């Protein structure tokens, strides 16, 4: 009787431990409304687009940035975008940089971001 009680407690503890570990492996999936999703995504694309303006090169898990983009040439005033719209080119650069940063984190390499220079050379400013 005593051994079956101990065995039952051990099995319960093992099952509870497995459940705890399994619950920790999967992030909690919270319900979201379409409005909240759109608000969060609008905030994210605005931030990614702003960072994309500094990106000069993003490949092989490394990101080269310019530290002062408008130093060589004064920035051109942006066109009038519709509400919440951002520059597609800067957004693309930012997304590529975010993807490369994630690749670097997955490979567990250090120092993925490096400086290309102070300002973006005008003719060579196209990201490949």
Please trace the helix and strand order, writing H or E for each element: HHEEHE
Instruction: Tell me the total number of β-strands.
Output: 3
Order of strands across the main sheet: 1-2-3
Straight-line N-to-C gap: 73 Å
Mean pLDDT: 81
Structural class: mainly alpha
Strand content: 5-15%
- Specify the helix fraction band: 40-55%
Indicate the low-confidence ranges by residue numbers: none
Compute the gyration radius: what is it? 24 Å
Biggest sheet record? 3 strands, mixed
Shape: elongated
Number of helices: 3
List the helices and strands and how they pair.
Layout: H1 2-25, H2 34-52, E1 55-59, E2 62-66, H3 88-107, E3 113-117
Parallel strand pairs: 2-3
Antiparallel strand pairs: 1-2
Helix pairs in contact: 2-3
Would you kindly provide a written description of the structure presented here, covering whatever features stand out?
The chain has 128 residues and is mainly alpha-helical. The chain has a domain at 32-117. It is built from 3 helices and 3 strands; from the N terminus they run ααββαβ. Strands 1-2-3 form a 3-stranded mixed beta sheet, covered by helices on one side. β1 (55-59) and β2 (62-66) form a beta hairpin. α2 (34-52) packs across α3. It is elongated. 12% of the residues are buried. The mean pLDDT is 81.
């Amino acid at each position: 009787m005593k051994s079956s009680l101990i065995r039952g407690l051990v099995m319960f503890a093992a099952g509870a431990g497995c459940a705890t570990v399994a619950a920790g492996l999967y992030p909690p999936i919270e319900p979201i409304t379409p409005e909240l999703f759109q608000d969060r995504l609008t905030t994210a694309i605005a931030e990614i687009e702003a960072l994309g303006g500094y990106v000069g090169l993003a490949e092989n898990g490394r990101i080269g940035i310019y530290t002062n983009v408008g130093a060589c040439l004064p920035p051109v005033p942006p066109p009038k975008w519709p509400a919440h719209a951002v520059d597609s080119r800067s957004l693309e650069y930012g997304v590529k940089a975010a993807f490369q940063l994630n690749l670097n984190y997955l490979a567990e390499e250090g120092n993925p971001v490096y400086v290309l220079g102070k300002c973006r050379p005008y003719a060579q400013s196209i990201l490949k």
